[in-house]
């Protein structure tokens, strides 16, 4: 019995020397795991480039911790692009984290809504002609045939051909509004959202004139086609950009969708049009008011 006790005591002594006699063995077992998790987090943050925005992480807690309550934007005067004043917008409007899943669903929703679905093939009951049997069933030595509208014959019907249908899909309004503000926020944080004073117009409707403006501001071919969004009609601006080629295009606010905000280079938008976008697409920020019973 004494020898067994000495053996167990020697084993425990070796264990204590392995982890350190002055510290608790349980603490020593937990310390390496804690140090690994802290080192992993530190190395992850250290690998991020200085230009990487921490708010683009999908964690909502990190987003709330690092996003400011308001963001400051500069209002320019078109076409001189002279800074006029500053305007502040809520971070829930122009500083949302990037959500690729929501943007993808919004683009698919818009694309499905634009599909015509007018493809139509004739069935055997829509093809002109008599529906009598072409030849007898037996006795001719040839294959059996029915009417001339048979899909096996030239000029016959189409089997399982396309018919008129509705390709449009459904998307919750709150999700679609969030996709709008997410696209605007992504453009703002990249520095591609340029807000101008209302009334963007040119003095003359010349293609060379508008190309010189694009070249001076480094818009167009280098960063992709720029999109100019106006709240009203600008005749000279529209005429000048008709022959501008790959430099840019101009659209009114009701013609723009989420895909336009994502696929083009720079977004030059009037302040009135931006305010209209943010006002029309904020249903997810408004709480429902229960009606009094």
Automatic annotation (TrEMBL):
Q: What is this protein called?
A: Large ribosomal subunit protein uL4m
PANTHER family per record: 50S RIBOSOMAL PROTEIN L4, LARGE RIBOSOMAL SUBUNIT PROTEIN UL4M
UniProt superkingdom: Eukaryota
Keywords per UniProt: Ribonucleoprotein, Ribosomal protein
The entry assigns this protein to a family as follows: Belongs to the universal ribosomal protein uL4 family.
**Tell me, what's a Pfam family for it?**
Ribosomal_L4
GO cellular component term, pick one: ribosome
Read off the NCBIfam families from this record. Answer: rplD_bact
- Which parts of the sequence are annotated with region: Disordered? 136-159
Offer one example of a GO biological process linked to this entry.
Answer: translation
Molecular function (GO) terms listed? structural constituent of ribosome
């Amino acid at each position: 019995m004494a020898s067994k006790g000495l053996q167990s005591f020697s084993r425990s002594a070796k264990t204590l020397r392995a982890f350190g006699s002055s510290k608790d063995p349980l603490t020593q077992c937990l310390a390496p795991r804690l140090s690994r998790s802290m080192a992993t987090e530190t190395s992850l943050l250290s690998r991020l480039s200085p230009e990487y925005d921490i708010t683009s992480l999908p964690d909502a807690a990190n987003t709330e911790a690092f996003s400011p309550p308001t963001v400051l934007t500069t209002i320019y005067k078109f076409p001189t692009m002279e800074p006029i004043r500053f305007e502040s917008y809520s971070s829930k409007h122009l500083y949302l984290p990037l959500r690729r899943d929501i943007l993808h669903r919004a683009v698919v929703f818009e694309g499905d809504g634009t599909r015509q679905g007018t493809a139509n093939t004739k069935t055997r009951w829509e093809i002109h002609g008599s529906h009598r049997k072409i030849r007898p069933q037996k006795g001719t030595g040839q294959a059996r045939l029915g009417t001339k509208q048979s899909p096996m014959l030239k000029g016959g019907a189409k089997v399982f051909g396309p018919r008129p249908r509705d390709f449009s899909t459904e998307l919750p309004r709150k999700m679609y509004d969030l996709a709008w503000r997410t696209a605007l926020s992504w453009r703002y944080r990249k520095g591609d959202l340029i807000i101008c004073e209302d009334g963007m117009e040119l003095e003359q409707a010349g293609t060379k004139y508008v190309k010189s403006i694009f070249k001076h501001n480094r818009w167009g071919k280098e960063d992709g086609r720029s999109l100019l969004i106006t709240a009203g009609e600008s005749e000279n601006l529209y005429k000048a950009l008709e022959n501008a080629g790959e430099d840019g295009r101009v659209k009114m606010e009701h013609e723009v969708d989420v895909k336009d905000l994502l696929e083009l280079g720079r977004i030059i938008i009037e302040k009135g049009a931006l305010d209209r976008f943010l006002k029309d697409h904020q249903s997810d920020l408004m709480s429902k008011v229960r009606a009094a019973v």
